Amino acid sequence: MLIILLRNKSILPRFGWILGLLRGSKKVRYFSIKDLCLASVLTLVAGFVLFDPVQAQSEQILNVEPDAVLTYEVNIFGTSDKNLSDTGLMELLSQSSRLKQLKDKPPTSLATLKRRVREDEGNFNKVLRSEGFYDNKITFDIVEDQNPIEVSFGIDPGPLFHISKFDIRFSSGGLIPDALKLSDLGIAFGMVARSEDIVSAQNQAMVILADHGYPDAKIADQETVVDFATQKMETTLILDEGPRFVMGNLQFEGLKTVEASYLLKLARWKAGVLYNAKIINELRRKYLHTGLFEAVHLKPREDNGDSGNKQVGTDVTPIILSFVERDHKSIGLGASFSTSEGAGTQLFWENRNIFGEGEKLRADLTVAEIRQQFKLGLVKPNYLRLDQSFYSDVNLRRENTEAYEEQSISTTAGLERKWRENWIVGAGLSFELSEIQDEDDTENFTFASLPLSARYDSTNDLLDPTKGFRFGTTATPYLGLSATSPDFLRAEINGSTYYSVLEGNKLVLAARGKVGMMAGDSARDIPATKRFYAGGGGSIRGYEHQTVGPLNSSDDPVGGRSVIEVGAEARIRVTEDIGLVPFIEGGNVYDSMVPNFSENFQWGAGLGLRYYTAIGPIRLDVAVPLNRRKEIDDAFQFYISIGQAF
Hints:
The protein has 12 helices and 26 strands. It is α+β, with helices and mostly antiparallel strands. The longest helix has 21 residues, at about 110-130. It is extended. It starts with a helix and ends with a strand. Residues about 1-65 and about 305-310 have low confidence and may be disordered.
């Protein structure tokens, strides 16, 4: 009879413990008659429990089979005049509710449901106390005689408690550093006694101590007294500060190709100063910013006892950084296509640590319908001084457009220096030999030039910025080194700005502008390749490449001495991977030294599709000329490339 009852599924959950006891004893091999009688008595008692008429009636009312699940609804409401939604409590309570979290996994018994209710009661109490409501009252009601079962919670948060005292002391009885002020911990007398603020203050205390010689500090104890009569809280934070350290020599582990001497130069390290975790973290970020490392870790200190370098009240500890180097070589391939410029491919190879000090050697090859170019460039960072780079390149170029045909070779060398937080200024020296054929003739030119530049960039992304501002200006005086090469000055100013309107960058507004000016000889005397042009994918979309501006009798562009362009986009994220971009752009090119607006702007507008990838958005734009010149402009243009238009 015992075996038959235990095989019944409805009895196993309630009587299985007896079987467990019998199985759990390895010493029991045989059962006496007394044991069997006892088991029979227990079985009869269990039978009365299992077939409780009250429970059977309840199951009949609910129309739930023993193995069926129970459905329920949860209602949370306030029982006082305090609006839970206004205080943000309703959202926090809902997020902490296990009943709501497990609603898709309904319980198989009423007892399980009640356990969830009790768990929610405890969670709600924790939430309320964490928000400063210590004298709260929580009631609940379970309506069992309906389907789904209704579970209701009544919440009276009670009064808010406030901090009236917050003391900090060391367990050793030592003096607290002056830097460990309550204001630095985010604590003020009279503020709401939220547990999150208390925990934040504890964490901030550890950060401050680590910046003032105590990297091993920890929380020893916390004494908190809550006065329900006055709704006040008094807290005493007891800290175990540990030993005080000064920083010793800087040491490196894990280096393979990067020179340790280069890292020491970047560090500007000063041994013997008080241990400061902020200095170490900033140094780690500086090393990561070089792009040479996957990871930079601070190696835990080893307790070697008294090393003999002990100062008054302090120990000297070496700072050991462990590095994981990146692969310094890479190769890449890109492609683009537009109706005005045709197809093009771009291939590059680079080594970002060719001599062991972060020097970057890069080769770029462009093969397109209107342009073929090979460029080899070297950049040496932190040249002669920190935040200053030396750059040099050799550029072979052939370009064939409606305006000119060019074959040239040039070489450039110069310096760029970081200035303040977002500025980079530079100056260089360049030499160029070129053969240029335009509408008039084919001529050879030889120039020496001094390119000067300044760039500002506060944007958050190179290929897809959503906030910030970019500004750049260049001024290049050209000195002709042959009889056919004139002297002139070419200057250009451009800028763009980005503003995220909706949360999650669902809508980003972007705008740009460009102004170019040229001083010196007339436009026809200046080489065609140095003049300004407009129109095309990187300029005014909707028009063919370089066709906005002065044209000759064959409607071919001739360029000018000044240019102005404006543009705006609304970048709309439709899904995580897909975006739409309506845009409008306009501008013109002029013969005068500065734009004189003698000709109206040519305007183009269109719609773009963006597919967002890990390397940046893939761009497809279709644009039309709004004031189309019927004999010159096509009805539309489209462009495909990687990255935003600007």
